[in-house]
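Handout for the seminar on molecular recognition.
Each group receives one record of this type.
Step one: identify the two inputs.
Step two: read the structure output and locate the region that could contact zinc ion.
Step three: write two sentences on what you found, then compare them with the reference statements printed after the record.
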Amino acid sequence: MENAQKIIIVVIVFYLIKPCLTQNKSYNDIHTYNCGDYNITIINNERTFNTAIIQRLINLYSSLYPKLVDRFNRNAPKSVTVRLDPTRKSSFIAVAYGNTINISTKTIRYQYRYYDILLHELMHVVQDYPATPEAKWLGEGIADYARYTYAKGNADTDWSLPDYSPTQQYNDSYGVTARFLVWLENRYNSTIIEELDVSLRTNTYTPAIWLNLTGNTVDQLWTNYSKYPILITDLSSALKMDTSYVVDR
Ligand SMILES: [Zn+2]
């Protein structure tokens, strides 16, 4: 057989089997969106994923991420990559490394309204904290504070802060710490979240920061919180029930 004929046969065979090869390749559906100085790339690795959720993620990023950057860290990345990952274990929800976020498609596929988990992860991108014990419990609390505060406009989000219970501690992290922070912001210091955030990023956090910012140690604050944990948003109904309460300062 002539070499030219061999080449033609190889090419024909390749094109016959190409659809099979393509089908076996991992799915990589890439969406990019630019919004002024900001941009987001979403890499969807699940072929059957609902594209309406991708649009929600893009909308959430473009409307809220610049607000997080403006408020907390103007040196935060202006470019974020989000991978929608179907391969991780079932306990995996989402994680941020630098300006790259991985979100489990299992989580937001079946909890459709849980898409605002992206807000929590975007706050981690803004935080850019060095790894310290406080960056873990307080950092997660601040990330859930951001999710709570900025997702309020998303009326369909299927997530809320946990109610107070006596078994909780201020360093339980996530929603427990976030609710405590909302309470502190309303009652003691309107810029306490920014102050705590900077101290974690610059690795200058010490327990004295609570005393400096509120006049109370964190243990005293938690005791006060446990006596009357109602949030200011619930205050009008709370005052009808109990007008005797005065916050200890
Ligand atoms: Zn987190």
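Reference statements: The two ends are 94 Å apart (CA to CA). Residues 16-24, 236-249 have pLDDT under 50 and may be disordered.
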